[in-house]
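As agreed, record minuted below.
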Amino acid sequence: MQTFHIRYRNTQGTLMRILNAASRRALDLPVVQAEPAEHDHQVTLALEVNQKQVGQLYREWYGIADVIKVSSGAASAWAGPHPPAGVSIEESRAAARA
């Protein structure tokens, strides 16, 4: 069981897109807790996943425009693609929206 913490801007449908990434893979959602976190919001998910699913979930969650940060207990073990170091997430999202 891994716990994921996803920080996001609370815009219409963002939380549903986050949860849909897990439900589409037929993963049980035994723990889901969404709450305000400073100026943004945060959802905590506990999921039973393998390493491949962790990579897929990270990739899909980072593909959601309003997701700010994704972390988990095994985040250091996951070595999937991230935005290039020289480009901020905000810049890459602004370019994607254009």
About this structure: Helices lie at 14-23, 51-62, 89-97. Residues 75-81 have pLDDT under 50 and may be disordered. The longest helix spans residues 51-62.
